[in-house]
Write a structure and sequence with these properties.
Number of domains: 2
Strand content: 5-15%
Bound molecules: pyridoxal-5'-phosphate
Helix content: 40-55%
CATH class of the largest domain: Alpha Beta
Shape: globular
Largest sheet: 7 strands, mixed
Structural class: alpha/beta
Length: 468
């Protein structure tokens, strides 16, 4: 071990968080309706599989795009040799148009200010390298996307200081909470370089309100710091009129070409809106020329393959298709979310009211033995090993209140989601039927055996009966 670098052995990657541990458990025993009906259902993965049919029919109708042809002529050699880290101009033009379309054409983007990266993961890390030195801090509202510990901190040495948000106001970002986080960072001897938000929020599934955005703008203006807006879920907003992008908020306040304008940086990706995380297409959009030029140089470490750029530039150039795709996808996501919310309601479980994303933020505080993170972990283990659902506990998102969980709904079929809801209903019925709820919650907990409880197997077999 001594021969290896400190980075190799440091634990700030966050791999040991329950977010990633749940995935590992799922991998060992994945649910399959036929092969493994009592396996674990993956509800911890923010993947969008609801609109593949649309993309697949487009590809079937446009074989030239996949065949790497332009006007019937092969461009294989051209693409195979292309290695300009500025990216294919045609692709960047289509991307900025797509970003505008998602924002209802209220704002325009300039392809020269766009930097391509291998996913939003790479884009967020690159921005940290551009904006902060090791030991500097970024303020993040909690709960936040568990991957940020890896993406923002691990290789860059940047610190994250939480902006405390609470269930009392639906986890909204407030001006006092921003000031408090800033003071906390200073007390820790950290220099604050910026704030990073996700809008819409992962894990809340809500859009940031105009008043929150205004508070954030005022805050970063007063402190002279940066703001990164990860808008990776912008195309998933079910009621798209409620999404206010940071660009729109700034434009409406006539803040274009001011110092604040130069300190705001947007992250985007096609992983969620188009459901293509495997294609690794992410980007930074910044009005700051120095940041753009540094980020372009850094993008050498995580370029997007020219083959992928070409295929996607062809798909995005079909404006009729993209309009239909966005509309249909949003409709399907909304319907799916409603199915999950009503299934949970049936099990007496409430969620934070949401309007975006591929997940809901679920309130299971009433199922905790005590109001502690230990109790949350116990409940999480039971849900994982006994109920057979991998959900992400709030603690993995650094939530400050125990008992909240993120549940994803777009990475599975309707049938699987229904089974997940039956399992959770059976679990809550079981808990509430117990005369001494606390005793029961503690008694049945037997996560060490890693076996699924009886009701899961019963349900799975009764589903098979019904299917026949
Ligand atoms: C808020 C947020 N940012 C970034 C990412 C990473 O996305 P990508 O697949 O584009 O790297 C995710 C993925 O879940 C996310 O939720």
């Amino acid at each position: 071990m001594k021969m290896l670098s400190r980075k190799t052995s440091c634990d700030s990657h966050g791999q040991d968080s329950s977010y990633f541990l749940g995935w590992q458990e799922y991998e060992k025993n994945p649910y399959d309706a036929v092969q493994n009906p009592s396996g674990i259902i993956q509800m911890g993965l923010a993947e969008n599989q609801l609109s593949f049919d649309l993309l697949e029919s487009w590809i079937a109708e446009n074989p030239d795009a996949v065949g790497l042809k332009r006007n019937g002529e092969s461009i294989f050699k051209e693409l195979a040799l292309f290695q300009d880290y500025h990216g294919l101009p045609a692709f960047k033009n289509e991307l900025v148009d797509f970003m505008s379309k998602i924002r209802r054409n209220k704002v325009k983007f300039d392809p020269k200010k766009l930097v391509l990266n291998a996913g939003a993961t790479s884009a967020n890390e690159t921005l940290m390298f551009c904006l902060a030195d090791p030991g500097d801090a970024f303020l993040l509202p909690v709960p936040y996307y568990p991957g940020f510990d890896r993406d923002l901190k691990w290789r860059t040495g940047v610190e994250i200081v939480p902006i405390q948000c609470s269930s009392s106001n639906g986890f909204k970002i407030t001006a006092p909470a921003l000031e408090e986080a800033y003071m906390q960072a200073q007390n820790l001897g950290l220099k604050v370089k910026g704030v990073l938000i996700t809008n819409p929020s992962n894990p809340l599934g809500t859009t940031t309100t105009r008043s929150e955005l205004n508070d954030l703008i005022d805050f970063i203006a007063a402190k002279g710091i940066h703001m990164v807006c990860d808008e990776i879920y912008s195309g998933t907003v079910f009621d798209s009129s409620s999404f206010v992008s940071i660009t729109e908020a700034l434009t409406d306040r006539k803040l274009e070409y001011t110092q604040v304008w130069n300190r705001i940086h947007i992250v985007y990706s096609l992983s969620k809106d188009l459901g293509l995380p495997g294609f690794r297409v992410g980007m930074i959009y910044s009005n700051n020329e120095t940041v753009v030029s540094a980020a372009i140089k850094m993008s050498s470490f995580g370029l997007v393959s020219s083959q992928t750029q070409y295929l996607l530039s062809r798909i995005l150039s079909d404006k009729k298709f993209t309009s239909k795709y966005l509309k249909t996808n949003q409709k399907r996501l909304r319907k799916r979310k409603e199915l999950l919310v009503s299934g949970l309601k049936n099990a007496d479980i409430k969620c934070l009211k949401s309007n975006a994303g591929l997940f809901v933020w679920v309130d299971m505080r009433h199922l905790l033995i005590s109001d502690t993170f230990e109790a949350e972990k116990e409940l999480w283990k039971r849900i994982l090993f006994e109920v057979g659902l991998n959900v992400s506990p709030g603690s993995s998102c650094h939530c400050s209140e125990p008992g909240w969980f993120r549940m994803c709904f777009a990475n599975m079929s309707v049938e699987t989601l229904k089974i997940a809801m039956q399992r959770i209903k059976a679990f809550t019925d079981y808990v509430s039927s117990a005369s001494d709820k606390r005793k029961h919650l503690a008694l049945v907990c037997n996560s060490k055996t890693r076996s699924l409880a009886k009701w899961v197997c019963q349900l799975a077999s009764s589903d098979r009966e019904r299917d026949r």
